[in-house]
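Tokens help. Our protein:
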Amino acid sequence: MTGPKPWLASDGGEGDRRYAPATLRNRDAISDVLRPVLPAEGVVVEVASGSGEHVLHFAGLFPRLIWQPSDVDPAARDSIAAWTQGSGLANIRPPVAIDAARDLWPVARADAILCINMVHISPWAATVGLFAGAARLLPPGGLLYLYGPYLVPGIVTAPSNIAFDESLKARDPAWGLRSLDAMTALSRDHGFGEPDIVSMPANNLSLIFHRL
């Protein structure tokens, strides 16, 4: 079976810092998509921040925004703190524990929410909870941005994504690539408009939702 191995913060690394090789490959492409849709100022919550490398990069590019990283995994939160300490960036808050599948999040509000490469490496309940949490925290017009591989009806799935889906399900049957139709239906159920969809490198998509 081929395809990229799903990365987890608990897989380890040197010291507290963890490294996600995909971050270096996708952070600039993601930044280009975020630039015209992020608010000019306010609080951006990143759900499932993983290693913390993305939030470090975005905070440097968008200094007028306050960035709130989070992760359910303590090893990931340690990595986020290790990356941000000594960075000289004053607009990154300490990481908090957010379990997307739970109703109670330790954040009162947000102007935008980002979630990169979580949906396929978590049970479906986490994605349902992500939309429910975003509906609670975001004001009308607030941004929910998702990035990752998805199954698009009517379009042949790339062989690498098929292999990736198989490897995910072999690791955990509750994981796997989600259908774009299922994501869109879920967004409607939680008060979001139709997504803007941007094709990304390596057969990934950016999904841009706004709260109605």
About this structure: Helices lie at 21-34, 53-61, 74-84, 124-137, 159-171, 180-189.
